[in-house]
Design brief:
The protein is α+β, with helices and mostly antiparallel strands and 1246 residues long. The strands form 19 sheets. A seven-stranded antiparallel β-sheet has the order 67-66-65-71-70-69-68. Strands 73-75-76-78-77 form a five-stranded mixed β-sheet, with helices on one face. The chain has a four-stranded antiparallel β-sheet with strand order 1-28-27-26. β52 (559-567) and β53 (573-576) form a beta hairpin.
C-alpha cells in the first residue's frame, strides 16, 4: 500500500530569480549560499535575494563545484574559472583560461566540474583539465568523452565505444566489466555501500557495480525510467536515491528499489524536465529545471494531500477503517486509493482520494464500529459500505459527533445540534438502528468521553460541559451542567475533551483544565506544564496516540503551534515542537493518531484542516538542529550611492571594512539573510550595533536595518538568525570605523582658538557702540509704547461695552444679530458681515445671521467644512488662534446674495467647541484688498473669546430647549403605548368573555330563521285545514320573525368580526420570523388590495406608482403579520381615494378643469441596517383633530358598519413588535402618507 503524498517544496520562477529559464548546475558554499549554473551566468541565492554573476557574454554555465579552498569553480562555454570577492566583497568571475596553453583553449563547453583531493577536474567532451596547486594539466582522448562522475574521490568517465574508465594515477583506464557500458549511456553513479556503486543508464535502467561486475538492479519504476529518460541522480541523507528525468520529474526510491515519492507537474512542480539534483546542508533537495529552479524538503516526515490528490473541502475528521483511510470534509467523505506502481508500466497512478457515493453533505465525524463505518453529517448519520453510503438516521439539524460506549459496545452516542441521540446494534441482524434520544440534553454536543463507571462527559460549543450518569439506564439519567459557575473561565469558547488513560482532560480556549470531583469544580491542569494551564494560553485541536502521548495545538493569540507531549516513564511529559514547525501556517481542525500497525508503519499521525491533510511519519527522521549561517549580505550608505561591503569576505569570521568611513557617510544600511531554506520566509533576525544600541533587537522578519547619524568612533554590527525550527545561528560580525567631521580635527580646534582671540577684541568694541545706540532707541520705544497703551485702553473700554451688550442677549438669533451689529461698530471698514453655523444633522454650514446681505436669499445656501476651510483658513494669513485675514478669495456664494461684487478682503473668526468648528464670524470689505490690518486681527482676537462664549452659551440653551421638547414628545408616546397595551389586555379579556355568548346568539339566530321557514312550509301544506285569515296573519308574523332573526344574525356576525379584531389586537406575533423579500411582499399586498376593492366597487380604478429600492434586499419579519399591515394601509388608501372620487364626481366642475385622478404611491428605500416603506394616497386626508387618535383601538372615521376601528391599531402593534417605527403625515383634503421603518435583522432572533 503506497499512500504517497506530496512533499513541501517551493518553485523559483525565472521572474523571481532574474536569470534565463534553463538551469544546469547547483552548488553550495561553506556559508550555505546557493549557486546555480544558468544560461545567463551564475545565479546566487542567500535565502532572501537573488544575484546574477555574469561569466562571459553569452556563456552558458553548465557545471559548478565547491573545492576545499572554499571557492566555487565554474565550467561554462569556452571558459573555466572560479568566483572570488573583489576589494569590497562583491563576488566576481575569475577566468583560468590564462593557465591553459593557447592551443588548448578552443573547447566548446565544459560539461562537468568536480573537486577532489587531487584538484579540480573540468571535463569537456574532447578534453579533460585538472587544476591543482596553481597549475593546469590536460588530457586529450582518442575518442570523445560522454560524461564523467566522481565516486569516493575517484573520477570515472564514460567513453562511447570503449566503456567506463577511471583515473588511476595520471591515466584513464578501463575498469573491470567497464566495456558493458560502451554502448549504454550512463547518467548517474552513486556510492551504494560496501564499496559498491549504483549506476544509472538510459537504455537498461540501474546496475550495481561491486568492482568486478555490474549487475542489474531491478526497481518498481524500471519502465517509468526508460519512458521518461533518466538524466541524473543523487543520494539523500536517509539513504534513498533521488532520480531526475527529462519527462517525468523526480522519483525517489529506497535501497530496495521501491518508490517512495514522485514529484512532477501534476504535484505542482513547474517543469518535468529536470537537468540536475543536489542536496544542501539542511538535507533539502534542489532541482535545476529546464524552466526554473525548485527545492524539495526531503527527506521529511511530512507529506501533504490536497486537491492535487483529489481531496476536496476542509477536513473535519480522519479515520482508518479496515485498512483504508477515510476523510470527512465539508464536501462529503473520501477514501484514499493507494498509488499503483509496476516495473512493467511506465505510468504511475499516484495515491488519490475518491469520493464516497451517496453522500455530499458537510461531514463532521467518522466512527469505526466493528465492521461498520459511520459518518455524522449535516443530514444525519450515514453507514458507509465500500464506496457507497446510505442514510441510517436522519436529523433535522447537524449530527456533529459519534462515540461508541465502552461499557455497552452495542450502543453509539450521536452528538446533535440540540441533543444526544442513540444507535443500537442488533446482534441477530448485525445492523445498527436508531434508538431514540437521551432526555434532558438540549445543547450542541461536539465531543464525548466515557469514564470506566459509565459516566458520559459531553463537550459543547460555548455551552460548557455536561455530565450524564448512565449507570442506571438511559430513560431519565441525571444530568449536570458545568459552566463559569463551576470554574470555567470567561470566554472559554469550545469545550473539548481529551481522553487519557484513566482520566479526562478538559481543553478550552483558556487552557487545559481538570475536574475536582470533591469540589465539583474545574481547576487548571498543570500536568503538561504551567503555561498550558494559563488562561492566556489557548488550546485547539487535540488527540492521544497509542503511547498515551498528547498531541495539542496551542498558543497565544494568532500564534498557534502544534506539539506533542511525550509521556516519560515517571509519568511526566516532555514537549516536542520542531517536527511540526513547518505547519505554522496550516490551520488545524483535526488530529488523528493511528493506533493500529499498517503497511505504512505504526504511529502515523494525520493532521487536517481547510488546506488539506498532512501525514506525519514518525519513522522518517530529520535533523532539525542543523547549523546554518547568518549572513551579512551588503552594507551601503542609506542614500544608496555607495556599496561599502558586497556580502563576501576574505575572512568570514572577521568581516572588516577596508578603510575608515568619512563622517559624511555616517548613515548606513545593513542587509542580511540566513542560509536556512526550509520555509525561509519565516526566518527571523536579531541585530545590534555595538557602541550604539543598548542590546539585541527583538526578533523580526525584516532583512535590513538602517542606522543614521552615527557618531565618529569604532563599531561592530552583530546579526544572528532563527530558522523555522527555532534553531539559532552563530553571529555574523562586521567591524568598521567612522572618522570625525573635519570641524572636529586637531587643526580645526587650533583655528577656533585663534579666531576666538580676535573675536573677543572685536566684540568689546562692537558692544560699546551698540550700547550707545540702544540708549537712544529705548527713549523712542518708551514714547511709542506709551501711545500704544493709551490706544489699547480705549479699545478695551469699547470692547467691554460691546461685550456687555452681547451678553444681555440669550436667544441664539439675538446673540448672532448683536454680534454682527457690535462687530461692524468695532471694525468700521467692514461693509458687510455674516455668521455661518454648523448643522450636525446635515454636516454642513448654513447662514444663521447676516448684516448687509439678504438673509432670506441665503437660507438655502450650505457649505461643507472642507469648502469653508479652503476659502477662509487654508493658505490665509493667521493672526492668533482662530483669526484669519483673507485676501485671495474663491467665490462661494456672492452670486446668490444680490451683491454687485464679491468681497475683496475678509476678516474671519472661527468658534470651536470640543475640537469641532461650530461657527464662522465673517466681516467683508468690498473695495480694498488691504482693508484689514494686523491691528484689526489682534483686536478681533481679544474679542474672540467673548464672542465664542456667547455663541456656545446660546447654542447650548437652544439644544436644551430642543431636548426638552423631544423628552415631552417621548413621554407622550410612552403614555400612548401604555394606554394601548392596557387597552389591548382589556379588549382581550372582554373579547374572550363575549365570544361564547356571541356564538350562541349567532347560532340560534340562524336556527330561528331555519325553524321559521320550516313552520311556514308546514302551514302551507295545512293551509286547507286552517282559516284563510289565520293563515295570512300567521304568515305575516313568521315573515317578521324571519326578518328579525336575519337582522340578529347579520349584527351578530358584525360583532363577531369586532371580537376577532380585538383578539388579534392583543395577540403576540402569529408566526416565525423569516428572511423575506420586501418588494415581493409589497407587490402581493398591492395586488390583493386592488382586486379586493374592485370586487366591492366595479368602477374602482387607481393609478399606481411603485418605486422599490433594488438594494433594500430582504428583512427578518413575520411575513403574514407585516403583509397584514401593508394590506390594512393599502385598503385604507384605496377607500380614501374612492370616497374622494365619489365626492368629486358629485361636485360641479368648471369647463376645461382638470379631473381628479386617484393615485396610490408605494416606495421603499434602503437605510443601511434599516429599510423605509412609504404608502401615500391623494385621497381625503385626515383632519388634524383626529390624527392623534387613529392608532387607538375602535377609532374609525368610516360610517357605522364599514370599519371595526382596529386595523391601524393592530398594524401599529405589529410594527412595534418588529422593533420598527410607524408614523403618518397628512393634509386634509390632499393626501395621507404612512411611513414605516423596519430593521433588516431582528435583534432577538435566535
Amino acid at each position: 500500500m503506497k499512500e504517497i503524498g506530496i512533499p513541501y517544496f517551493k518553485n523559483y520562477s525565472p521572474k523571481e530569480h532574474g536569470g534565463d529559464v534553463q538551469n544546469w548546475a547547483i552548488a553550495q558554499d561553506e556559508r550555505g549560499v546557493m549557486y546555480f549554473g544558468n544560461n545567463s551566468g551564475v545565479l546566487e541565492y542567500d535565502g532572501v535575494s537573488w544575484r546574477l554573476i555574469p561569466v562571459k557574454t553569452g556563456s552558458v554555465v553548465r557545471a559548478l563545484a565547491l573545492a576545499a579552498d572554499g571557492r566555487i569553480y565554474v565550467g561554462a562555454q569556452s571558459t573555466i574559472g572560479f568566483l572570488a570577492p573583489d576589494a569590497i566583497g562583491q563576488l566576481q568571475y575569475v577566468s583560468l583560461l590564462d593557465s591553459i596553453p593557447p592551443e588548448s583553449r578552443d573547447f566548446v563547453e565544459i560539461a562537468k566540474v568536480y573537486a577532489t583531493k587531487s584538484g579540480v577536474y573540468f571535463q569537456a567532451f574532447d578534453r579533460l583539465f585538472l587544476w591543482s596547486n596553481g597549475r593546469m594539466r590536460l588530457w586529450r582522448p582518442d575518442h570523445p568523452f560522454h560524461i564523467s562522475f566522481v565516486v569516493n574521490d575517484v573520477l570515472y568517465i564514460r567513453q562511447p565505444g570503449v566503456g567506463l574508465l577511471q583515473m588511476a594515477g595520471d591515466s584513464l583506464q578501463l575498469i573491470r566489466d567497464g566495456e558493458k557500458f560502451s554502448e549504454l549511456r550512463i547518467y548517474m553513479m552513486l556510492p551504494f555501500g560496501d564499496n559498491k556503486i549504483l549506476i544509472g543508464t538510459r537504455e537498461q535502467g540501474l546496475f550495481v557495480y561491486d568492482g568486478v561486475k555490474a549487475l542489474p538492479f531491478p526497481t518498481e519504476i524500471d519502465a517509468f525510467l526508460l519512458e521518461n529518460q533518466l538524466y541524473h541522480g543523487v543520494m539523500l541523507a536517509n539513504g534513498e536515491v533521488a532520480l531526475a528525468t527529462l519527462r517525468g520529474g523526480v522519483a525517489i526510491i529506497d535501497r530496495s528499489g521501491r518508490l517512495q515519492l514522485l514529484l512532477d507537474k501534476d504535484a505542482g512542480l513547474q517543469d518535468n524536465n529536470v537537468w540536475l539534483l543536489a542536496s544542501d546542508a539542511q538535507q533539502g533537495l534542489w532541482l535545476a529545471l529546464n524552466n526554473g529552479i525548485a527545492r524539495v524538503e526531503t527527506p521529511s516526515p511530512l507529506a501533504l494531500f490536497d486537491e492535487r490528490s483529489g481531496l476536496r473541502g476542509s477536513v473535519e475528521s480522519t479515520l482508518r477503517h479496515r485498512g483504508t483511510l477515510y476523510v470527512a470534509t465539508h464536501q462529503g467523505v473520501f477514501y484514499l486509493k493507494p498509488a499503483v506502481v509496476s516495473p512493467r508500466s511506465p505510468a504511475i497512478s499516484r495515491a488519490a482520494f475518491q469520493p464516497i457515493r451517496g453522500i455530499a453533505e458537510q461531514c463532521w465525524a467518522l466512527l469505526s464500529a466493528g465492521e461498520t463505518l459511520l459518518a455524522a453529517t449535516h443530514a444525519g448519520v450515514y453507514q458507509i459500505e465500500g464506496a457507497q453510503a446510505r442514510l441510517l438516521r436522519e436529523s433535522a439539524g447537524h449530527s456533529y459527533a459519534l462515540y461508541r460506549s465502552k461499557k455497552d459496545t452495542t450502543l453509539i452516542y450521536v452528538g446533535l445540534e440540540n441533543g444526544l441521540a442513540l444507535l443500537r446494534f442488533n446482534p441477530k441482524t448485525r445492523q445498527w438502528s436508531e434508538a431514540g434520544e437521551v432526555n434532558g440534553v438540549e445543547v450542541e454536543v461536539r465531543d464525548m468521553a466515557e469514564t470506566a463507571n459509565g459516566i458520559l462527559w459531553l463537550g459543547t460549543r460555548s455551552q460548557g460541559y455536561l455530565r450524564v450518569d448512565l449507570s442506571d439506564g438511559l430513560a431519565h439519567p441525571p444530568i449536570q451542567i458545568f459552566d463559569r459557575r463551576h470554574g470555567l473561565p470567561e470566554d472559554y469558547g469550545w469545550a473539548s475533551l481529551i481522553a487519557l488513560t484513566g482520566r479526562e482532560v478538559f481543553a478550552t480556549s483558556k487552557g487545559l483544565l481538570r475536574f475536582d470531583e470533591k469540589a465539583q469544580r474545574f481547576l487548571p491542569d498543570t500536568t503538561f506544564g504551567a503555561i498550558y494551564a494559563d488562561s492566556a494560553h489557548s488550546t485547539g485541536e487535540a488527540a492521544v496516540d497509542h503511547n498515551d502521548n498528547l498531541w495539542l495545538q496551542s498558543g497565544s493569540g494568532t500564534a498557534q503551534q502544534l506539539g506533542v507531549a511525550v509521556r516519560q516513564p515517571n509519568g511526566s511529559y516532555v514537549w516536542q515542537y520542531s517536527p511540526f514547525a513547518r505547519l505554522s501556517d496550516f490551520t488545524i481542525w483535526d488530529i488523528y493518531c493511528e493506533r493500529e500497525e499498517t503497511l505504512m508503519g505504526v504511529g502515523n499521525t494525520w493532521i487536517g484542516g481547510p488546506e488539506g491533510l498532512v501525514r506525519y511519519d514518525a519513522a522518517a527522521q530529520k535533523d532539525y538542529a542543523v547549523n546554518f549561517s547568518a549572513l551579512l549580505r551588503r552594507v551601503i550608505t542609506v542614500n544608496g550611492d555607495s556599496v561599502l561591503f558586497g556580502g563576501t569576505g576574505i575572512n568570514e569570521d572577521a568581516l572588516t571594512m577596508a578603510s575608515p568611513l568619512p563622517y559624511l557617510n555616517n548613515s548606513l544600511r545593513f542587509e542580511f539573510s540566513a542560509s536556512s531554506y526550509d520555509n525561509e520566509s519565516v526566518n527571523r533576525f536579531q541585530y545590534y550595533l555595538e557602541n550604539f544600541d543598548k542590546g539585541w533587537s527583538a526578533w523580526t522578519k525584516e532583512t535590513k536595518k538602517d542606522y543614521t547619524n552615527i557618531s565618529e568612533g569604532r563599531y561592530r554590527f552583530h546579526v544572528r538568525a532563527k530558522n523555522a525550527y527555532d534553531h539559532v545561528s552563530a553571529e555574523a560580525v562586521y567591524s568598521f570605523k567612522i572618522l570625525p567631521p573635519w570641524y572636529r580635527n586637531w587643526w580645526a580646534y587650533l583655528i577656533y582658538l585663534s579666531l576666538a582671540g580676535f573675536g573677543v577684541y572685536g566684540l568689546i568694541k562692537y558692544r560699546t557702540q551698540q550700547l550707545v545706540q540702544r540708549s537712544r532707541a529705548l527713549e523712542e520705544i518708551v514714547q511709542q509704547r506709551t501711545e500704544k497703551v493709551r490706544q489699547q485702553t480705549e479699545e478695551l473700554e469699547t470692547l467691554d461695552d460691546i461685550v456687555k451688550k452681547i451678553n444681555r442677549e440669550v436667544d441664539l438669533e439675538n446673540v448672532l444679530r448683536s454680534l454682527l451689529d457690535q462687530g461692524l461698530k468695532l471694525f468700521p471698514q467692514a461693509e458687510k458681515a455674516s455668521v455661518l453655523l454648523y448643522d450636525a444633522n446635515s454636516g454642513l454650514f448654513k447662514f444663521a445671521a447676516a448684516a448687509g446681505y439678504d438673509l432670506a436669499r441665503m437660507k438655502d445656501i450650505a457649505f461643507t467644512p472642507a469648502q469653508l476651510a479652503q476659502r477662509y483658513t487654508t493658505g490665509s494669513e493667521q493672526v492668533g488662534e482662530g483669526v484669519y485675514i483673507v485676501r485671495n478669495l474663491q467665490n462661494l456664494y456672492e452670486e446668490n446674495t444680490a451683491s454687485p461684487a464679491g468681497p475683496i478682503s475678509v476678516l474671519v473668526m472661527t468658534a470651536v467647541r470640543q475640537g469641532q468648528t461650530e461657527a464662522y464670524l465673517i466681516f467683508d470689505n468690498l473695495s480694498s484688498p488691504d482693508a484689514f490690518s494686523q491691528s484689526d486681527a489682534h483686536k478681533l482676537s481679544r474679542f474672540r473669546s467673548h464672542a465664542v462664549s456667547a455663541i456656545i452659551k446660546a447654542e447650548i440653551l437652544q439644544e436644551l430647549q430642543e431636548k426638552n421638547i423631544e423628552i415631552i414628545k417621548t413621554q407622550e408616546q410612552l403614555i400612548m403605548q401604555e394606554k394601548l397595551a392596557s387597552l389591548g389586555s382589556l379588549t382581550a379579556g372582554i373579547a374572550h368573555e363575549i365570544k361564547n355568548p356571541l356564538n350562541f346568539v349567532n347560532n340560534f339566530a340562524v336556527l330561528s330563521v331555519e325553524l321559521a321557514q320550516e313552520l311556514k312550509e308546514e302551514i302551507e301544506q295545512q293551509e286547507s285545514k286552517i282559516d284563510s285569515r289565520a293563515v295570512t296573519a300567521i304568515t305575516e308574523l313568521l315573515q317578521t320573525l324571519q326578518q328579525n332573526a336575519q337582522k340578529i344574525n347579520e349584527h351578530g356576525k358584525r360583532a363577531d368580526s369586532i371580537v376577532r379584531g380585538m383578539l388579534q389586537h392583543s395577540r403576540a406575533e402569529s408566526g416565525d420570523r423569516e428572511n423575506t423579500d420586501l418588494t415581493a411582499l409589497l407587490r402581493q399586498a398591492v395586488s390583493l388590495a386592488y382586486h379586493g376593492m374592485r370586487a366591492q366597487e366595479n368602477g374602482f380604478n387607481v393609478t399606481l406608482e411603485e418605486d422599490y429600492d433594488a438594494t433594500a434586499g430582504t428583512i427578518d419579519v413575520v411575513p403574514q403579520d407585516v403583509s397584514r399591515v401593508f394590506l390594512n394601509l393599502i385598503n385604507n388608501a384605496n377607500y380614501a381615494v374612492l370616497q374622494k372620487k365619489k365626492k368629486w364626481d358629485e361636485m360641479p366642475k368648471p369647463a376645461g378643469g382638470a379631473g381628479y385622478v386617484p393615485t396610490l404611491s408605494v416606495r421603499t428605500k434602503n437605510l443601511g441596517d434599516k429599510v423605509e416603506i412609504r404608502i401615500r394616497d391623494n385621497g381625503t386626508g385626515i383632519p388634524q383633530s383626529v390624527k392623534d387618535k387613529i392608532f387607538n383601538p375602535f377609532f374609525t372615521t368610516k360610517p357605522p358598519g364599514q370599519g371595526t376601528g382596529l386595523g391601524l391599531s393592530i398594524s401599529y402593534d405589529i410594527i412595534q413588535k418588529h422593533r420598527g417605527e410607524m408614523r403618518v403625515e397628512t393634509e386634509e383634503g390632499n393626501f395621507t402618507e404612512f411611513i414605516i421603518t423596519l430593521p433588516k435583522t431582528a435583534s432577538n432572533k435566535s
